[in-house]
Amino acid sequence: MDWTPRLTRLPDSHLPLGVGTGQATCRACGTNWPCKTAGEHLSETRCVCGSASWWETRGPRNWHIGPRCYTNAQAVVAQAADLGAAWAAHYPPSHYYPVKPGRRRRQEPPYDHTPAGPGDVQPGTWVWVRPGGLHPGWGDIHHLGMVTALGTPKCELWLHIDGTVHQVRADHLILDGYIARRAARAAGLTTIREPGSGRRPLLPEWKWVDWTIAQHLEHRPPGRTPEEAAQLDLFSVQG
Questions:
Q1: What average pLDDT does range 174-202 have in this prediction?
Q2: pTM of the model
Q3: What is the rounded CA–CA span in Å between residue 178 and residue 97?
Q4: How far is CA 53 from CA 29, 62, 191, in A?
Q5: Residues 27, 14: contact at Cβ < 8 Å?
Q6: Long-range pairs for 25-31 at CB < 8 Å and ≥24 separation?
């Protein structure tokens, strides 16, 4: 039994010659186009000018048999409109943040403190502000800042991104991860995590590096007062 696969697209050998003249002929057959073979893969429509137009049933190609009824410029504009509709730019909605209220601005304070254990927090400790700790105008993201004054329930914070000064709840402030690495190096250790694969938990004596400032304040030695930096008048509030 003979079996011949059916072509799903118009063979290139049966494409028309003389399109736009009104007398198109088949390349292979030499007869008026569309020939019998081409007709099996085409569907006929009518252009706005009245000329016959043929569309490929299983493909994107089309042919306008009658005299050309459009200019090159019109063809380019039409093609651009089709492409623009098919590939319309899509932009995700941007985050909306309210207008930032006025805040004091200050030069970077002359503090420098690296905690070495539980409760060892002083002005100059670098922290990350958890989302929700600042006004919504600063976005719902983590922000890096320096603690300039300790207190409960709020601490004074100097924000690194723009130098503004904020009052932030102590339980929204977490130690910067670099502090743990510096403390480990100072103690002569290469790691402060338990051995094993995956995200290894901290060793029991190093769990304080994940504490909030509020937790550190609860573990401060009694009677200890924060250290003050010298010549604070040189770092006055800016306008």
A1: 65
A2: 0.52
A3: 29
A4: 20, 7, 75
A5: yes
A6: none
